[in-house]
């Protein structure tokens, strides 16, 4: 059940998607790279931009703007690919900009309100209050596998 998703104090990589601040726990991030040539692959989900070759390793790349049904924009020097690992496979997430790496205290973390999960259940683990900003802590599994997560929920 989604209540098993835990929020904990620690370092988070904070990035923007369409001026919205989001974050992943630093242990979920393998590395952050500049956007490079992406080879399109026909017949895959529209939010998967294609594949990149990173030091001889083929990595699928998900465009987070498209993943969350936002309008895409041309890449700029600020765009980055955040590489995460799932089941021993690296996957890239295209973000508008990596803003900072910051330590978030436990008292600054709040669970997700039910109203924020109506569009896509489990999209966020919760929210963090840092300075005057509100940062959505993404549920990495839901970002990577939105269809699979729904199927798992029905089997519980």
Model description:
The protein has 156 residues and is mainly β. It has a single domain, classed as OB fold (Dihydrolipoamide Acetyltransferase, E2P) (Beta Barrel). It has 3 helices and 11 strands; from the N terminus they run E-E-E-E-E-H-E-E-E-E-E-E-H-H. The chain has helices at 64-67, 140-144, 146-155; strands spanning 10-17, 20-25, 29-34, 48-54, 57-63, 80-86, 89-95, 97-104, 109-111, 124-130, 133-138. The strands form 2 sheets. Strands 8-1-2-11-10-9 form a 6-stranded mixed beta sheet. A 5-stranded mixed beta sheet has the order 3-6-7-5-4. The protein is globular. Mean pLDDT is 86; it is low at 149-156.
Return the average pLDDT rounded to an integer.
Answer: 86
Strand line-up across the major sheet: 8-1-2-11-10-9
Distance between the termini: 8 Å
Low-confidence stretches: 149-156
Q: How many E-type strands?
A: 11
CATH architecture title: Beta Barrel
Q: How many helical elements? A: 3
- Series of H and E elements: EEEEEHEEEEEEHH
CATH class: Mainly Beta
Strand content: over 45%
Helix content: 10-25%
Task: List descriptors.
five-stranded mixed β-sheet; 156 residues; mainly beta; disordered C terminus
Itemize the secondary structure elements and their pairings.
Elements lengths: L9 E8 L2 E6 L3 E6 L13 E7 L2 E7 H4 L12 E7 L2 E7 L1 E8 L4 E3 L12 E7 L2 E6 L1 H5 L1 H10 L1
Parallel strand pairs: 2-11, 5-7
Antiparallel strand pairs: 1-2, 1-8, 3-6, 4-5, 6-7, 9-10, 10-11
Could you give a quick summary of the protein structure above?
The chain is mostly beta strands and 156 residues long.
């Amino acid at each position: 059940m989604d209540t098993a998703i835990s929020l904990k104090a620690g370092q988070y990589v904070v990035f923007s998607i369409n001026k919205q601040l989001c974050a992943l726990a630093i242990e979920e991030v393998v590395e952050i790279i500049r956007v490079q040539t992406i080879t399109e692959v026909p017949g895959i989900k529209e939010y998967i931009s294609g594949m990149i070759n990173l030091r001889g390793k083929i990595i699928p790349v998900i465009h987070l703007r498209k993943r969350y049904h936002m309008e895409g924009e041309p890449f700029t020097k600020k765009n980055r690919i955040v590489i995460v690992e799932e089941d021993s496979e690296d996957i890239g997430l295209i973000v508008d900009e990596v803003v900072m790496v910051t330590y978030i205290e436990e008292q600054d973390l709040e669970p997700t309100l039910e109203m924020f999960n109506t569009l896509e259940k489990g999209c966020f683990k919760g929210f963090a209050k840092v300075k005057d900003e509100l940062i959505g802590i993404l549920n990495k599994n839901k970002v990577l596998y939105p269809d699979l997560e729904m199927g798992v929920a029905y089997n519980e």
